[in-house]
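Forgive a beginner's question, but would it be possible to get any protein sequence you like and the tokens describing how it folds?
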Amino acid sequence: MGRLAPPSPFHRRYESTYRGYQHDALQFLPLRVRYRPKCLIMELVLLLLRWLRDAFSGAMLPPVSEKTLFQKIMDREEPGDILYEDDLCVALRDINPQAPTHVLIVPRNPIPSLDALTEEDESLVGHLFLVAQKVAADEGLTDGYRTVFNNGSDAQQTVAHVHLHLLGGRHMSWPPG
């Protein structure tokens, strides 16, 4: 087994600065590595790639500070094919359908994720399923359909606004995902 190479001039120059900021969030300059690339540029590229991997591995949905896409569609600021609406929710066609019938049932209240639901939202969630049942009947989904909530980035939730997917018009496989 080979010896560890001494710290490069790059690391010696920034080691004192790095130690001063050890408690900062951006601790991406690893000062001790087992094998050092011969080229300083390669070393910097590897450091950057590791930092990007670590920085974005736990990426979260953006906070709900502005209107979501769904709110803009509900307010008629953005186009959308609305199939049903009432005082609690709106049903609209998905712009990227994953089945012949792909409808989103979206509450008017912008709840960012399922994790943000409270006991007060219990009747709202039940209402979303009843609306899905009505829309499925209106769309002629007599042979069955699937309803799905996605929650978080691992589940591919792309809009920080709870919505129920209604999928039908084809045979669904199992397990999903």
Observations:
- The two ends are 44 Å apart (CA to CA).
- The longest strand covers residues 101-107.
- Residues 53 and 133 are 42 Å apart (CA to CA).
